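Raw record, unedited: Xylose isomerase
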Amino acid sequence: MTNFFDGIEPIRYDPSAETDLAYRHYNPDEIVMGKRMEDQLRFAVAYWHSFAWEGGDPFGGRTFDRPWYPQDSMEMARAKADVAFEMFALLGQPFFCFHDADVRPEGASFAESQRNLEEIVDYFGEKMEATGTKLLWGTANMFTHRRFMAGAATNPDPDVFAWSAATVKNCIDATKKLGGQNYVLWGGREGYETLLNTDLVRERQQAGRFLQMVVDYKHKIGFDGAILIEPKPQEPSKHQYDYDVNTVYSFLKEFGLEGEVKMNIEQGHAILAGHSFEHELAMAAAFGILGSIDMNRNDYQSGWDTDQFPNSVPEVALAYYEILKAGGFTTGGTNFDAKLRRQSLDPVDLIAGHVGAMDVCARGLKAAAAMLEDGGLEKARGERYAGWDAPKNRDMLENGTLESITERVLSEGIDPEPRSGRQERLENYINRFV
């Protein structure tokens, strides 16, 4: 045990509690649509924002003062792990997620970094066995170090491509060894700053071949988890190749990977792409590639990815509506890719941020389940498109030609009148549940 969270008791479900360190809505054993709430939500803590982030922003450096800083030795890596797994136990959430650079110090060589990762993975294994916490997914940080300033898989330097491929191999190995249920590829700098020095065709081919190698290696080693891509439209690169779900799906189709790779979708990234979170989830579900989510939000007055804990039940409810409608999570879950504000210095803030977010998600999940069970939205959608169920209209769509449809319009005297989309009434309907 460490003394980092001294005085904080394990968080329990207590709807009448007069403290912010209790769950009022998240009851792991409550049954929601035939599953325990814990099994529907599958919460995970993000190791990077919770323990590796130092509180800096584009205009200022570190504000946090953690006992495992500076994060430059295996001794500090183990100290960080001790605190992390203590927090997992306090929260009682079932999963966590990590990048390689979050959990081990950078070595003087690739081989040393690999040894550091292998050592901390063994330490994690002991901690996981002791606490029961599992790994939702692992990934590689291929965006922070200066070697990745022009990308990883899409880098113009083949040596960086090679370094990146070897890094991903090590991280998949680590994920498999820890029983991870997914492996995520997040191309933090897989994009470009200017077309003046960029070969788009070459970089796209490199990215596609890289992903094919990842999938091949997954099958070679018998990794049973899902391979996920996390779309992001911009920041830090001006133009990201993995802009949104539609863009990524076209990429997967081009390289024959649509049956092999699914999506890890983040709310904040959806917003940066000009979409709603539920739009991206619905698109992924329509393509059959919905895998997992990062649950956070952006500051709507800022034009960048602020990674704040969720606090809007209506937003969260619409997201879980799409997830439940698609059948719920399988290997995926709800990862809090969220961080404290840089003025939130106390250890208790880290606990409180997760407790509040888990409660918001629990309320949203229950609202989403209630809407699905009531069926009002699906009934309204069905009524709006009911005309297409008529045999002659199905035949028009499947077998019609412009000539035959024109003949029908003339012979039947078709002159359609617009019908209300009833948006305000549907918004009122949603408000009954949230």
